Amino acid sequence: MAQAAPTQLAAQIRSQPDALEHMLIAGTVKAQVHAAAEALHRVRRIWVVGTGTSQHAAFLGAAMLQDAGRSAHAVSSMQFVKNAPIVNQADGVVVITHTGETSYALSARALAVLAGMQTITITREGLGMNDVIETVPKESSETYTVSYTTTLMALGMLASAMGADSLTPDALGLVPETVRDAIAASGTEEIPLPQRSVQLIGSGQGAITAREGALKIREAARMLAEGYDVEFFLHGSAVPIGGQDHIVALTHGDDDGLVRAVATAATSEGIGVSLVDEPASLPPLLAQIPMTVRLQLLAARFAAEREQNPDVVITGKWGDPGLWSIGAPAPY
C-alpha cells in the first residue's frame, strides 16, 4: 500500500478535533451563534442555502433546525437565485459558503438582504461580513474538510440554541473526541481501490454523507465516485455496477436493513462491498460528522495510491475565472 506523501489535505483532516473544540468554547463563536438564534427565532420559515459541499451541509443543517421544531428547507444557491421559492420578509435565510467567494451563494445572500429577509452567513474567518458565524480560516487544500465539519458544528450549535431536542450541549461536546477516534482508526483502511468506480450508499442522513464522501473521493483522487440514497441506488442506479466497481455501504442508521440487504445482493452479484459503521454514541445528525471524517481519510488514501495531488483540485479550463464568476452579484 502506498504511503501518503505529506499533503495539506492530511493536515486539514487532522486539525478537525481541535477546530471543533474551538467552535464549542470560543466566546466569539458563542456570541455569533446566540445572535443568529435570536434573529432566526423571529422568522416564519428558514431556507438553508449552499453549493456543492456547502449544499450537503445545508441538507443536514435543515434537518437540525427541523429538530428544533422549525420549518427549515435546504436549497442550492443557484436554485434559490434563479428559481427562488415564494419567500417574503417573514422568512430567514442561512447562507453557507466555505470560502466566502462562491458566486451564487453570494448572490443568494445579496438577494435575501435586499428583500429584507433575516440573513445569516456561515463562512470562514476574516471576511468582515455582518450577521455571520465564522468557522475556520480559509483551507489550504481545495478538497474541503475542516470547513465542512465545523460548519456542521455551527449548525448544530445554532439548532441547539433554538431548542433542538437531540442536539444538546452535552451531545455536541462529544463530537471532537469521536472525530479523534475516527482519525485514529477510520474503519476504511481495508477498502480496496477499485478498477473503475466506488459507489457509496446510505440511508436517511447517511445518504447525504455518502454523497459528501463521494465528492471528496472525486476531488482528492480524481476518480469516479458516486454517492446515493440506498433506495435510489436500488431503483436502477445499481444496474451497470459490476466487478470493476466497489460499494461502500454506510450502515449507521440502517434501521430497516435495506443498506445491508443491498450490500448482500451486490456481493451475490460478484461486486466487492465494504461495510462502514459509526460506533460513536451520538444523535444521528451529529454522527454524520465522524462518519464524514472516515470517508475523508479514505479519499486521502485513494489520492495517495493514485499519486494524485488532493490539494489542487480545480485545474485547466475548469479553473477559468470567467466560468466561476457567472452568477455573482453585481458589481463583481
Q: What would you note in describing this structure?
A:
By secondary structure, the protein is an alpha/beta fold. It has two domains: 160 residues, Rossmann fold, CATH 3.40.50.10490; 123 residues, Glucose-6-phosphate isomerase like protein, domain 1 (Rossmann fold, 3-Layer(aba) Sandwich), CATH 3.40.50. The protein is built from 13 helices and nine strands. The strands form two sheets. A five-stranded parallel sheet has the order 2-1-3-4-5, with helices on both faces. The chain has a four-stranded parallel sheet with strand order 7-6-8-9, with helices on both faces. Strand 8, helix 11 and strand 9 form a beta-alpha-beta unit. The model has no long low-confidence stretch (mean pLDDT 94).
Features:
single chain; 332 residues; alpha/beta; Rossmann fold; 2 domains; 5-stranded parallel sheet; 4-stranded parallel sheet; 13 helices; 9 strands; 48% helix; globular
How is the main sheet built? 5 strands, parallel
What is the overall pLDDT average? Answer: 94
**Class based on secondary structure composition and strand pairing:** alpha/beta
Strand-residue fraction? Answer: 15-25%
Which series of helices and strands comes N to C? HHHEHEHEHEEHHEHEHEHEHH
Please give the alpha-carbon distance between the first and last residues. 46 Å
Helicity, as a percent range: 40-55%
Global outline: globular
The CATH architecture assignment of the largest domain turns out to be 3-Layer(aba) Sandwich
CATH superfamily of the largest domain: Glucose-6-phosphate isomerase like protein, domain 1
Number of domains: 2
CATH class of the largest domain: Alpha Beta
Q: If strands are numbered along the chain, what order do they take across the biggest sheet?
A: 2-1-3-4-5
Radius of gyration: 19 Å
CATH topology of the largest domain: Rossmann fold
